[in-house]
C-alpha cells in the first residue's frame, strides 16, 4: 500500500492549470520536509492535487504555511536538455490538513487564505469518578508470572 502522511512547509504558492480534454483543474506546489535527524538536510517535494483538491490548494494555501499532506508517492523519469534521464519524486495529494497560520515572513502579503483555522481539537468526556473499591473490581487482572516455572537460581538464556 502506497499511502503516506508528511508534515511539510509550503515553499512555492500553488499554481493551477487545466487539462485540455475535460478542463480538470490540476494544482502543483513545492514543499519542504525536515530530515529525520537534526544533521540531515531538508528535502524538497512537488505536491500535485487534482479536481476539488486543486481548488482548495489554490484558495487555502500560502507560502510558509505548515501542512500535513496525505497521499501517494510516485517516481517520474524526466529527460533533461543534455539527454540525461533524471528521476524526480512527486506526491499525489488525497487529503490536506492545515496545521496553523503561515510564518511571519509570508504574513505580510495580504491574502484571504492567511486566516485558515486549524482543525478543531476533539474534547474528551469528563472522567468518571469512582471509589477505590469500584476501580479494583472494574480493572482487568493480568497474570504477570513467568510462562515456565523455573527455580529461582536459574536464569534462562
Key terms for this structure?
single chain, 157 residues, mainly beta, five-stranded mixed barrel, 3 helices
Folded structure, characterized:
This protein is mostly beta strands. Helices cover 13% and strands 36% of the residues. The protein contains 3 helices and 6 strands. The chain has helices spanning 52-60, 104-107, 132-138, and strands at 4-10, 15-18, 25-33, 43-50, 66-79, 85-98. It has a 5-stranded mixed β-barrel with strand order 1-3-4-6-5. A hairpin with a 6-residue loop joins strand 2 (15-18) and strand 3 (25-33). The longest helix has 9 residues, at 52-60. The radius of gyration is 25 Å and the shape is elongated. The two termini are 38 Å apart. The model is unreliable at 104-127 (pLDDT under 50).
User: What's the assembly state of these chains?
Assistant: single chain
Specify the number of helices: 3
Approximately how much helix is present in the residues? Answer: 10-25%
Physical arrangement of strands within the biggest beta sheet: 1-3-4-6-5
- Give the overall silhouette: elongated
Quick one: how many beta strands? 6
Radius of gyration: 25 Å
Average pLDDT works out at: 76
Amino- and carboxy-terminal Cα gap: 38 Å
Give the amount of beta strand, in percent.
35-45%
Largest sheet data: 5 strands, mixed, barrel
Low-confidence spans: pLDDT under 50, at least 5 residues?
104-127
| Helix and strand run | EEEEHEEHH
Which structural class do the helices and strands define? mainly beta
Amino acid at each position: 500500500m502506497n499511502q503516506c502522511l508528511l508534515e511539510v512547509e509550503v515553499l512555492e504558492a500553488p499554481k493551477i492549470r487545466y487539462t485540455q480534454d475535460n478542463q480538470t483543474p490540476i494544482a502543483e506546489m513545492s514543499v519542504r520536509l525536515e530530515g529525520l535527524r537534526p544533521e540531515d538536510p531538508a528535502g524538497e517535494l512537488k505536491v500535485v492535487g487534482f479536481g476539488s483538491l486543486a481548488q482548495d490548494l489554490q484558495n487555502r494555501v500560502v507560502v510558509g504555511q505548515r501542512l500535513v499532506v496525505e497521499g501517494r508517492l510516485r517516481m517520474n523519469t524526466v529527460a533533461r536538455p543534455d539527454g540525461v534521464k533524471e528521476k524526480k519524486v512527486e506526491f499525489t495529494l488525497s487529503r490536506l490538513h492545515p496545521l496553523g497560520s503561515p510564518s511571519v515572513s509570508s504574513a505580510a502579503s495580504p491574502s484571504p487564505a492567511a486566516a485558515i483555522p486549524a482543525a478543531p481539537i476533539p474534547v474528551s468526556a469528563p472522567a468518571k469518578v469512582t471509589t477505590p473499591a469500584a476501580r479494583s473490581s472494574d480493572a482487568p487482572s493480568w497474570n504477570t508470572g513467568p510462562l515456565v516455572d523455573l527455580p529461582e537460581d536459574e536464569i534462562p538464556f
